[in-house]
Write a structure and sequence with these properties.
177 residues; Glucose Permease (Domain IIA); 2 domains; 7-stranded antiparallel beta sheet; 3-stranded antiparallel beta sheet; 12 strands; disordered C terminus
Length: 177
């Protein structure tokens, strides 16, 4: 889908690049599972889905092809004209926003989960030019106040394999994002 051409799947890994403890067959074993998901920028909530169950067969690399929504539980936020962000695979019942709500950058909108076509707990994030997930054209996302692969950067476009964290002097609330 063209809307996902700049999409990112974000996970939490330890210093040894492990994404989970134990065998990784239960969602709570994943370091990102249950983490707060924060709005990337101010905006208006356009759409939400909060009824998709946790995907089965975790730890085998399969996604739930029977899920009622391939993006699982999600939030769509209009951050600007022709700039709609999708935050996907959230835990059922964790969404804190509804369509029409205004959100501020850094506000909690839900918690990271494993719903929809998800092979493991993670946050799927992308920005596109329309709220329609099937018709939108993906847009690159410029992140700010980060460490990328161990080096502080003011701004960056992330690519697969980047190890990122908030910059030590960033004005955020620690390790929540």
């Amino acid at each position: 889908m063209l809307g996902q051409r700049f999409a990112l799947d974000l996970v939490v890994a330890d210093a040894d690049l492990r994404r989970h403890a134990g065998r990784g067959t239960r969602p709570e074993q994943y370091f990102c599972h249950g983490r707060d998901i924060l709005a990337a920028a101010d905006g208006e909530v356009i759409a939400v889905e909060d009824r998709v169950r946790t995907a089965p067969l975790l730890g085998w690399g399969f996604c739930d092809i029977t899920a009622r929504s391939f993006v699982g539980n999600h939030v769509v936020i209009r951050h600007a004209d022709e700039e709609f962000a999708l935050y996907a695979h959230l835990i059922r019942g964790s969404l804190t926003v509804r369509p029409g709500d205004r959100v501020a950058r850094g506000e909690i909108i839900g918690r990271c989960g494993h719903t929809g076509h998800s092979s493991e707990p993670h946050l799927h994030f992308h920005v596109q030019d329309t709220a329609d997930l099937f018709e939108g054209m993906g847009r690159p996302v410029r992140f700010s106040a980060l460490e990328v692969d161990g080096a502080p950067v003011d701004e960056a476009y992330l690519v697969a394999g980047n190890r990122v964290r908030p910059a030590p002097d960033a004005s955020n609330e620690g390790d929540r994002s």
